[in-house]
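R.M. (postdoc): so does anyone remember the format we settled on? I'll just put the structure tokens first.
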């Protein structure tokens, strides 16, 4: 990731939850996003197949009310940080037995934005005093999101 990209992510985490992140955190963040998008696509594949389709549509992605609210909150912060173009570049398209519709491909970056917001907020829910998340904080976050998504 470019220096400019790192700076934008640092600003995002500060704006979203008052967190100071470093390059190691950004690596963990990227791994988190890859895994969670993969998990969402696994569920979307099941929904599409259950409905007799061979293409994943946006409504197949399991976006909960909380995630939708985080997507809206991300949009508000993104007006300041302008992270959206970077998210479009780094949003993974996991391999799938099914095709992705164009609308689904367009929707994934905003879902990644919502997941980013949910992730940042989760750190301060678990520990309101945390400012620079450590390995143990990240491990807790992974366990929580693995349980929920």
């Amino acid at each position: 990731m470019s220096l400019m990209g790192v700076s934008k992510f640092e600003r995002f985490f500060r704006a979203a939850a008052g967190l100071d992140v470093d390059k190691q955190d950004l690596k963990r963040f990227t791994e988190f996003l890859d895994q969670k998008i993969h998990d969402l696509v696994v569920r979307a594949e099941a929904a599409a197949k259950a409905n007799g389709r061979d293409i994943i549509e946006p409504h197949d992605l399991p976006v909960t009310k909380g995630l939708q609210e985080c997507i809206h909150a991300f949009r508000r912060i993104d007006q300041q940080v302008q992270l959206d173009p970077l998210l479009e570049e780094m949003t993974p398209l996991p391999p799938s037995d099914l095709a992705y519709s164009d609308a689904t491909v367009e929707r994934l970056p905003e879902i990644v934005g919502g997941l980013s917001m949910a992730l940042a907020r989760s750190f301060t829910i678990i520990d309101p005093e945390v400012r620079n998340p450590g390995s143990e904080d990240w491990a807790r976050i992974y366990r929580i999101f693995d349980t929920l998504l």
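R.M.: ...and that's the designed sequence above, right after the tokens. Also worth knowing: The CA atoms of residues 38 and 94 lie 6 Å apart. The chain has six helices and two strands.
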